[in-house]
Design a protein that fits this description.
This protein is an alpha+beta fold and 161 residues long. Helix content is 44%, strand content 27%.
């Protein structure tokens, strides 16, 4: 396991609010993986409990079969993905693939459980920061859904909003 640069972690939103000791402990726990462009990291419907962080490169979140997949989002450095399966023990709701050569960090659920027992404040901050990231995504999705409903001109759906 390569050692992750602690500066990277300090700049990453999921680690905001952690002290230097907590950052150092997490840096030792993270795995680093380089992947070429076009590499599929997560597969919709599969089950893997890992939290992924993009340190370099760019990834896309896609849904549907490969021949007709729909791009839902483009993720840049410091973006997090895999969090839904990481925290809820459910299969992935979408796939994630690299758009260009990327360096990714990942943290397994087992490692998080160790962190929870040994450094509960760090695990708590990571969880709270993840909730903030997810809340921001839900806000954007609400706006996107609202715009789709309004543009469809369906009065019954507009009333629901």
């Amino acid at each position: 396991m390569a050692v992750v640069a602690e500066k990277l972690l300090k700049d990453c939103p999921i680690f905001h609010g952690l002290d230097a000791t907590e950052i150092s402990i997490i840096a030792e726990m993270l795995h680093v993986q380089k992947m070429p462009a076009g590499w599929q990291i997560l597969h919709e419907g599969d089950f893997e409990r890992a939290l992924w962080i993009i340190s370099e490169g760019q990834c896309a979140v896609v849904k549907g079969p490969r021949e007709s997949e729909q791009r839902l989002a483009v993720l840049d450095p410091y973006s997090v993905f895999g969090e839904m399966s990481f925290f809820t023990a459910e299969p992935h709701s979408a796939s994630v693939k690299t758009l260009k050569e990327s360096e990714l960090l990942y943290f397994t659920r087992e490692q998080f459980e160790v962190l929870l027992k040994t450094y509960p404040h760090a695990a708590y901050r990571m969880a709270v920061n993840t909730i903030g990231i997810l809340a921001d995504r839900v806000r954007r999705m609400d706006e996107w859904t609202k715009n789709m409903v309004l543009s469809a001109g369906k009065d019954e759906h507009q009333a629901e909003w």
